[in-house]
Protein: DUF4149 domain-containing protein
Amino acid sequence: MFYTIVTILAIIGGLLAASSFIAKKSQDAGKALKKLAPYQGVIGIILLVFGLYYFLFKSLPHLGVMVKYSAGLFGLIMQILMILVGFILSYNLLAEKLLSKSETAQEKGAQAAKKLTSIQIPLGIALSVCAFLALIL
Structure:
C-alpha cells in the first residue's frame, strides 16, 4: 500500500518535471500541473528521500540479484530516476534550508542542478512512465 502511494507520487513528480513539455502539448494538463507547482519542493523531497531509502537499503544489498531479473532492474532504474527527479524538484527548497550555510555546498549544488535541469524533461517523462508501469504491472 505504502509503495503504491510513493509510486503515485513518482508519477506526479515526473509529470511536474516534464510540465513545460506537457503544457505545450495540452493546455488543460498544463493548468492542472500549475496547481501542483507550489508543492513541487515537498514532492521532490519525498521522492528524493524514498528513492535514496529504497536504493540504499532495499536494492543495494541485493544488487547482484536485481540486475539479473528485468523486474529488479526496472525497480532499480525507477529508484535512480526518483533520486534525480527528486533532487531537481526539491533543489530550491534544499538550497534555501540546507545549502545556504556553506558557499561550497551552494556552488556544488548549483552545478549539479544545472546539469540535471538540462535533462529534466526526459527524466520526468521516464520517471512517469516507469512509475505508471510499476503501478499496473
User: Anything to note?
Assistant: The chain has one domain: 1-136. The chain has a mean pLDDT of 88. Residues 1-136 form one domain. The chain has eight helices and no strands.
